[in-house]
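User: We ran a pulldown and think these components assemble together. Before we commit to crystallization trials, I'd like a predicted model of the whole complex to look at. Sequences follow.
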Amino acid sequence: MDKLIFELQDVYFSYLGRYPALCGVDIHIRRGERIILVGANGSGKSTLLQMLDGLIFPDRGILKAFGGELTEGRFNDDGFSKTFRKNVGLVFQNSDIQLFCPTVKEDILFGPLQLGVAKKEIQRRFDELVHVLDIAALLDRSPHQLSIGEKRKVAIASTLVIDPEVLILDEPTAGLDPLTTRHIIDLLLAANAAGKTIITATHDLHIVEELSDVVYVFSQGKRIIRHGSPQEILSDSNLLQANNLIHMHSHRHRGKTHIHPHLHIYHHEEE
Amino acid sequence: MSALSFLKGAIFADEYASKKGLLQSLDPRVKTVTFLFFIIQILLTKNLFILLCLYALCLLLTLFSRINVGFFLKRTWIFIPLFSLLIAIPALFNIVTPGEPLITFTIAGLKLSITRQGLFGAALFMMRVTTSVSFAVLLSLTTRHFELLKVLRVFGIPQVFVMTLGICYRYIYLFVEIVENTYLAIKSRVGTTVHYTRGQHIVAWNIASLWNRSYQLNEAVYQAMLSRGYRGEPVLGDDFKIMAKDGLWLSFVITLSAALAYVQYYLLV
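Assistant: Here's a predicted model for the assembly, 540 residues in total across the polymer chains.
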């Protein structure tokens, strides 16, 4: 049980008490695991990620983190809040929300400065990340001057610099070019190899196999409809199609019309 | 659209602040304090010669900071009439400033004179405004705006206030872009000519929509801050460094100010 980081039992959450976002979610996440949440738009993935980051709390059900129940009241304790924020980092879906400082450098340094990390250590982490992500040229620029890919890299840097044990990412590769996507996947794999737990929400099925040990599928009913290994989930076309993760694709090729499920994986087998 | 472009250019362009010139190389804190010192000196002096010397110094600094002088003059002289002309013109006449008449003329049976004292007062006022606006514009052109915000901390402004201003600066651009895109979207659907009443509705709807978006953004940004350990008392980094060059600049400003004060009180009086 000591390896269990997050435990959710029958969790319900609604916005303004009227718009349900999670309806009876059960999930268990262990230390060092790679978890992927897939589901259509508005199925509750982002809400769950914010809950795991201690930003919102269940209306009903139990949310446990690091062995203890996670409630809003616990964050009034400075010590607990600091420890939790040091251990869990969230990369938001919209980088414009995450990057709120006037310059990239200030944004990257914001987290560790608030958490009281020693200045030498901050500098060491900062230099390492700037080198790994190749963002030295961006440091004095304002976030509004960056491209989507650059913003995403800086947002990831601003979370990684905290050196959290659990890294939560909301659509980290959405709208990115293939090279930047590859770069981010490699970075996450390296973080996982270093022992970090990686929880990712995505629509991007071609990153699922590489970035997950367990895949959770969200349905339109705002609940987890199925979980399993990436191979199990990705091979179930009916499940993916029923949950808007793949669609029937029609195209003309050598004078014939082909209709098949549009699934961005297994390209190599097809060749 | 042109107003939005001007706003973007005026607030966010840091083309000159990124150049490698004299003023750009100084520590922003030292630069701001010395420029404030110059402006105070401008406000206190009653001598046109001293003001002309300070204005000449400002233009020289513009040159040494690799700023196009034509651009600089345009930027400063846009503001000067706004600040001074309406006040300076009435001060020329004997109705406001009585004294020795220089030119006398009659308008609609009313005899008006431009007085020597009025002319001197108006010239002094115009010169003060010109020189102080020039120094203020030069400071903003040679310093990145976020650095100017950080300098506020030197004057004891609380960190939370400085951070709030920084966040405002960051998001104004986003909102300007939203307004710009909304305007383009409207233009693409209804064309350029919109009935007055319809136009009012569109503007009202835009204001409401922007308010709604800013409210949502406010909550989301606060969550992003909490997520990275913000607890209501921000801790900001300080990467300003005072170098030998700043010491030299400070010595130059003190010596120059002392020399100008000497000229004003002992030689010209």
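Chain A has eleven helices and twelve strands. That may be worth checking against your pulldown data before setting up trials.

User: Thanks, that helps.
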